[in-house]
Each structure stands twice: as C-alpha cells, then as structure tokens.
Amino acid sequence: MQTTTDFGGNEGSLLSVLKTLLFFTVMMITLPIGLYFATKAYVFQGSLGYSSNDSYFYAAIVAVVAVHVILALFVYVAWNEGSRQSRVGKQD
Q1: Would you say the C-alpha torsion 61, 67, 69, 71 has a positive or negative sign?
Q2: Looking at the predicted structure, is the pLDDT value of residue 91 above 60?
Q3: How far apart are CA 48 and CA 42, in angstroms?
Q4: Four-residue CA torsion sign, 45, 50, 51, 56
Q5: Is Transmembrane set as a keyword in this record (predicted)?
Q6: What is the full DSSP assignment across 45-65?
Q7: Do the beta carbons of residue 91 and residue 41 sit within 8 Å?
Q8: pTM here?
Q9: SS3 per-residue string spanning 60-86
Q10: Whose CB among 4, 13, 30, 50 lies 3.0–4.6 Å from 44's, allowing a Cys bridge?
Q11: Model confidence over 12-56: pLDDT tens digits?
C-alpha cells in the first residue's frame, strides 16, 4: 500500500528538480543585486569615472541583463532535464 508521501521511483527526479529550482532561485536573488552594486561602485564610478546618476543607470542595465541570462539558463536546464527524464522513462 502506497502512502501519499511515497513517490515511487520519482524521488530522485523530484529531488533533482527541487535542487535545480533552489539553485536558480538563489542565483536570481544574489547575482543581479551583487552585480548591480559591484559594477556601480567599482566599474562605472571607480574605473570609468562616471557620475553617480550615470552609474546607477548602467549598473541597472547590467543587473537586468544578468536576470535575463539566469532565466535563459534556467529554461535551458529545465528543458534538458525534462527531455532527459522522458528518455529514461521510455527505456524502462
């Protein structure tokens, strides 16, 4: 008799999906914010000598690009993970 917490053979795939989701969630939170402040302070104001207003603008562009890259990578990984699981399921 199976209980509601028994996932059968899907426990490994469920854990893999949750790890992937957690990884990209952490990346989505930390990377754009970190890049925003790092590029504002060290690249645009520090190295290039831009004004404060200009550095805000360009650092925001860097953060938005980072968000798009992370989202594209997530879609790519999720797509490949889904096709990999369907191939494994067909071989059984």
Answers
A1: negative
A2: no
A3: 9
A4: negative
A5: yes
A6: IIIS---HHHHHHHHHHHHHH
A7: no
A8: 0.76
A9: HHHHHHHHHHHHHHHHHHHHHHHHHHH
A10: 50
A11: 788 988 999 999 999 999 999 999 999 999 999 999 999 999 999
